[in-house]
Design a protein that fits this description.
With 70 residues, the chain is mainly α. Helices cover 46% and strands 0% of the residues. It has helices spanning 12-29, 52-65. 9% of the residues are buried.
Amino acid sequence: GISCGTKISKKAVVRNKIKRRLSEALRLKIPDIKTGYDILVMPTADIIKKTYQEVDQLIIKLLKKSKLAD
């Protein structure tokens, strides 16, 4: 799941944009993620400034670091 609270931004438009970017990045990685795990993504405020490509690279890095993807 993706949790994006008001600490990230007071504007729902911004929070939803972040959630859409994270959802898409994770959706494309689903075949590579090990089964049997639940993943919770809780972004910090600095994600607002990141592009989709940067978010995608962060997701890859975190999945590899947690050994949930190859």
